[in-house]
Amino acid sequence: MIRTLHEGLLADGITVPLTKLCAWFGVPRRTVYYKPTKAAPKVDPRFAEPIKAMIEKEPSFGYRTVAWLLGFNKNTVQRVFQIKGWQVRKRPIGMRSRIEAVPSVATAPNER
Predict the structure, then answer these.
(1) Same domain, 25 and 59
(2) Model's pTM, two decimal places?
(3) Same structural domain for residues 50 and 19?
(4) 3 state DSSP class of 81
(5) Are 21 and 5 in contact (CB under 8 A)?
């Protein structure tokens, strides 16, 4: 923002030092000169393709289950999930099996 303002003022014929502009707006000079060097994270297709196939087949599997079934490191699988933005889809509540209440057959220790 400061750079574009500085260039615009120079185009209009007004010379204001960059340091003075930074002081006026309360922006550190270091911030103006900063250029990010970190590259965007990349995903290796040899990991992404089988993981995508697995979660398409079984959408309720989490990263740990997928990692174990494919034989990958769980940290790698979790990182692929995060970078690609893949979310585990939960099963509907009606599809889960119900637990039946069974009467207890335990006896007291003095009744044996």
Answers:
(1) no
(2) 0.52
(3) no
(4) helix
(5) yes
